[in-house]
Amino acid sequence: MNPSFDDLFSIKGKVALVTGGSRGIGEMIAAGFMAAGAKVYISSRKADACEATARRLEQAYGGQCIPLPADLSRIEGVGSLAQRLSALEPRLDILVNNAGAAWGAPIDEFPEIGWDKVMDTNVKGVFFLTQKLLPLLRAAGAGPSPARVINIGSIDGLKSAIFDTFSYGASKAAVHHLTRFLAAHLTRERILCNAIAPGPFPTWMLSTGVGFGGATEGVDWDSVGARNPSGRVGTPQDIAGLAIFLSSRASEFIVGQVIACDGGIVGTS
Fold first, then answer.
1. For the chain, does the N or the C end have fewer beta carbons within 10 angstroms?
2. Would you say residue 65 has pLDDT above 90?
3. Active-site annotation holder among 41, 166, 168, 221
4. Which of 172, 173, 195, 170 is closest to 182 using CA atoms?
5. Whole-angstrom Cα distance, residue 102 to residue 20?
6. Strand 258-261, strand 147-152: pairing
7. Would residue 41 show up in a list of annotated catalytic residues for this protein?
């Protein structure tokens, strides 16, 4: 019998939660999921931004995008988000842990708050949100397709960055290894865990780092991309394409991996 390759990359009808989904890489992934036919929940700390992005994505791609604002740097926010989602859905097919924070300061001046805020959001929040959503993920994994957890790390967790973002790089390295730990414990429950390590994308966070003041439109991203082996920064299609792949039948044998999506910065250095 010939194998079937129908719907190999399909995520149509799946339910996804994308944290940090109101802007940047989170919004890019949420947009890709919606275009591919998934029902998407997005979360961010600011309720108005979360609502505005949800409405914008629905207008652009159709389907459903439901805002669930929460502060994932606090365990109370993590619990609230999990509780509200559990009241709305019997299962969660895809969890994208993307919410993140960064802090930059010279090594002699780097403050404790810059360490704690970043670690609480980028590492603690990822672990405890995944923990609180395990009942929904297990329910999805009991169906025909395994549930997926996609943790968004960074190439700064694979190599040293040029910025003075000491806690950020350390937190993303922790996210990468946490992904392997989660995979070791959850794969047999049909919850597949992988991580994406993005490189330069036209986001607010990178914009502040390269001197664009947070602007993502009307700034010289070409000058940033010129330093990349691929000659450009990433696009929504680049990051959403990888996230869709990791959520589809095509990736069911890929577990506990950290995949750089960076135009070759890590792979060619």
1. N
2. yes
3. 168
4. 195
5. 13
6. unpaired
7. no
User: Alpha-carbon Rg of the chain, whole angstroms?
Assistant: 18
pTM of the model: 0.97
Counting residues of the chain whose pLDDT is more than 90, the rounded percentage is 93
For the chain, which residues make up each domain, given as ranges? 80-261
Q: Mean of the pLDDT values across residues 183-200?
A: 98
80-261: CATH number: 3.40.50.720
- pLDDT over 90 (residue 131): yes
Largest Cα–Cα distance of the chain, in whole Å?
A: 65
Mean pLDDT computed over 191-216: 92
The pair of structure tokens assigned to 217 is 């439109």
Count of helix runs (H) and strand runs (E) in the chain = 10, 7
Q: What is the DSSP string of 14-74?
A: -EEEEETTTSHHHHHHHHHHHHTT-EEEEE-S-HHHHHHHHHHHHHHH-S-EEE----TTS
The phi and psi torsions of 18 (rounded to 5 degrees) equal: -115, 110
Tens digits of residue pLDDT in 13-62: 999 999 999 999 999 999 999 999 999 999 999 999 999 999 999 999 99
- Report whether pLDDT(204) > 90: no
Query: Any residues with CB less than 8 A from the CB of 232 and at least 6 apart, and which?
Result: 221, 222, 225, 263
The answer to whether 68 touches 42, Cβ cutoff 8 Å, is: yes
**CA 242 to mean position of chain CA atoms:** 11
Q: Average pLDDT over the chain, rounded to whole? A: 96
Backbone angles phi, psi at 67, to 5 degrees: -80, 135
